[in-house]
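Could you help me review a protein record that somebody else here produced? Do not assume that whoever made the record got everything right. The record follows directly below this note.
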Amino acid sequence: MQWRQYTPFFAACPARQTLRPACLSCKIIVTYITQGLPSPGKICYNAEYYLISLSSEGKPTMQTIKHFFKTHPHAWWGAYLPIYLAMFFTIEHFITDNYWATQTPLDAAIPFCEWFIFPYVSWSPLLVVLGIYLILKDGEGFRRYMWFIMVTFTTAVVFCILVPNGQDLRPAVMEHHNLATWLVEYTYSIDTNTNVFPSVHVLGVMALAAVWHTPGLQKPAWRWGVTLYGLVIIAATVFVKQHAAIDVLSGIFTSCIAYIFVYLIVGRRRDRRLAARREA
């Protein structure tokens, strides 16, 4: 993909300009994005035209990627995710036994329900979708979203290294055989029963609190919908026996501390700083 900028692209009415839908020499289909164009019939002297050309394979070039990060510098905070995954899978590999078992008598009273696996596995896509939205629509919101994830996820990894932990709640045999139990067994096969305190699933759900600070998601349906669905995901962690009750409670406690630090302390200071910068 190639970007070319023309300023000004024309000095007459844009409605009278003829734009080619493709490059005749290389047969590359192009898309035109306009900025600051006047309404038809008016003269434009400072309009900017950005031409995006997609190759026949549809693969972006390095120029496109560089341009994206130049216009969305906050997206670099997303680079923490592969770092976290590397740390997590490393401790998953080394911490497999001789751990502190986090289950309590309370967990024996919580029944196993395979159908909760569906909200459980929807956790990752939900975080990704919200992250992409924030990258494109709310750069400052994405920074704070990632700061919350960085603080909580790193805390969980460090604690699991210092205090190896796990739970022994998984059923040995599935009483039913259906799509849900198959997905549970597959989840068990790729995710060990260790490194559960605090629950990273709960930490991720609490990160969804970002919707309450996102101007584009002010509708109560969005905010309460995400909140209620997050509670279902938290419940799913104990119903599919991926976590013990105290794993969930520790996740909530850790998230509350991180929320105060990221959104109330650091966030409010940045709000004042950004407001002062806009007024200057």
Remarks:
- The longest strand covers residues 29-35.
- Residues 1-57 have pLDDT under 50 and may be disordered.
